[in-house]
Design brief:
141 residues; 0% strand; mainly alpha
Length: 141
């Protein structure tokens, strides 16, 4: 016969989530991982980036190292979760995880392109403003 569990000893969902960062629990497809990728374009100091999905791995200096570590993590997860399984299951699991890494890589490329296009447009507007302020002749936009 089981002893009854006291209510005070039961952990709430919030406490469990606080113990394990979501980036560790849901390693690839989480929006937090996309925020990690965005941090490479908004934060220059690697120490200030919050990369919870790479807990236990070295801090990457750039986005390429980050994606390489994600691929390594995918391999590690595949090995851990497919112990004792057939080669076909191991290969299928690894392919699935690596496809998620490729999705993150594509997201990174798209984000970089969007930021570049936005910067180009911003520079163009700033340049036009500068010309209009310092024009030596009558001009209209």
């Amino acid at each position: 016969m089981q002893k009854p569990t006291s209510i005070s000893s039961i952990q709430t969902t919030e406490e469990i989530t606080a113990l394990v960062p979501l980036g560790v629990k849901y390693h690839m497809g989480l929006p937090a991982v996309r925020e990690e990728i965005k941090s490479f374009y908004s934060e220059d100091d690697p120490q200030k980036r919050n990369l919870t999905s790479l807990h236990g791995y070295p801090l990457p200096k750039n986005i390429d190292e980050y994606l390489q570590l994600k691929a390594k993590k995918a391999e590690d997860i595949s090995i851990r979760y497919t112990k004792g399984k057939s080669n076909k299951e191991i290969q299928g699991n690894l392919q699935y995880l690596l496809s998620q890494v490729r999705t993150l890589e594509q997201f990174s490329k798209d984000l970089c392109q969007q930021l570049s296009e936005r910067d180009d447009e911003s520079l163009r507007k700033d340049y036009i403003e500068h010309i209009m302020e310092n024009k030596k002749y009558k001009a209209e936009r």
